Fold each of these.
Amino acid sequence: ISACVLVLTRSKDAEVQTAAAATLACISEAGSKAEIVAADGVAALLSLLGGDAAGELESARALCDLSEIVDSHAALAAGLDALVKLAEESDESQTFAISILHRLATGGDMVALGAMARSDSAIGLLVKQMSASNEPVERSRAVSSLLQLCGSDGSKQSIATAGGLPALVAVAESEAVSPAARHEAALVLASL
């Protein structure tokens, strides 16, 4: 693990970095998430975002797997801008980035929650996902994330500015989403 982190931080060779990120993804998937986080693997993996496409994809895959544990969320929050940018793109990494953002919003880590609540771009992305998606599950995940974020005064303004009010009303009235999602949308609306 330490060798892979070292390669990510010191190598300038994109292929070598991609291989190190892929190795960390496999190690994480095998159950060594805490060890990767402890070795500062999150910061090293975040450094590949915005670079070589293959390295970015492997990094996003590893980060998504690491985001399953709350201990990674504070470190992931440090790369919030890069994760939001990745989530706005339409390549293979997008799904990983969106999953990470939802986990940061709903995982309970106060550093990550605060970073998400202060990020107009993250909130805008969630509102866009809630309003533009035809998938009820994606809309429900966005509403759940916004529910966690709406406790912050700054996030309330961001939700409204991003067009969240009509989108939340649409979810609250929609028969296509679950009753739980409609209830959560109503709770977010009530908090605004």
Amino acid sequence: KPPKLKKGYRATAIELRASKKHTGRDDEIINAVFTLGLLSRHQIQLMFWQEDLKSVSAVNDRLRTLFYRHVLYRTVDVSFEMERAGLIPCHVYTLGPTGEELLALDRQIKRSELSYKYSGRSSQNVMHDLMTAEIYVQAVVCAYTHERELVKAAKQRHLEKEAARRFITQNRLSVTWHGEHDAVIWQDDKEL
């Protein structure tokens, strides 16, 4: 259990929102946990530390901070069940009361008006929800990987266009671009 807060959950949420201690990534994690019900440490790492998947200690440090601030809570230990299901055994997180307050502040509602209730779940229910979340996480990771490849291809394409432009300029050719992908180069009214 995290230590008790000196202030209430709402006051802590207001203080976090006003300070630089709370990041945009924290908000994304809170929203994902709210939407999916729970996420494992490994799933959070895959979704929100994609640029540095080797940084387990950074992920653990941040999640520990969010845990001690009551932004996230840990579920019952399901490490054994996770391993049997082929998942990496680690902590599983749900939204804590400070996290609920942060969401309520963003939505300008009371915490009691949030439709998030995830406490006291059995390990069987946690595993079911964790496997459901895993489908979503893998889709996000796949989309991120695909997007990264598209960005890389676009940068390469841009470099190719720049090289073509330099060639065209140096050789005093005229060019007509068709869409984003093809170029037709003309010299003395002949298509090259």
Amino acid sequence: AIADWRGAGAALSAPALELGLRQLPDGTGGLELSGPVRMSGPSGVGAITDLALPLDLAVGWGNGVRVTTAGGGCLPLRFARLQTPLLDIGTGSARLCPIPAGLYAQASGGALAGGFTVAPLDLAGAYLDIGTGQLTTGAITGAFTGTGATARLDLAIDQPRLIATPVAAGAVAGHRHRRFGARRRHRPAVAV
């Protein structure tokens, strides 16, 4: 169990974490992790508060390493607050689902595979301290690729759309109802 770890502006707790370990004579084995996990802290260009995740992961090794959900299903995520440069979002939720290769996989030669999908999002919050905003997306997918120094996580966000509305018409000079959108947007690869 991790009662309450804090450092570098982040917090992590997993008070009822259960571990199961198996090791076979042929060198293969696995680790199962389950239990509620709660995290807060910096997240890329923003911050997240009280991200709650009912952890249910299986890690297997032998001819490489593979991480997936223990039952192959999705993991529900909930958060109390998500802050980004544009939006300050209150309570929200999402479902993180592994792709068939698993959430993360690394072959014995080092090649990465695996990834995830997140069901479409519909989140609302304060927009740049001048009004309200609503962020909607289609599916979000992430895929691990490469090896060693070329390892990366590629993210794709289908149909992202941000609708921003000032608090009152004319309340902020030069600002009107604005819509931001695209059919498909790819985020640059993130080094792993």
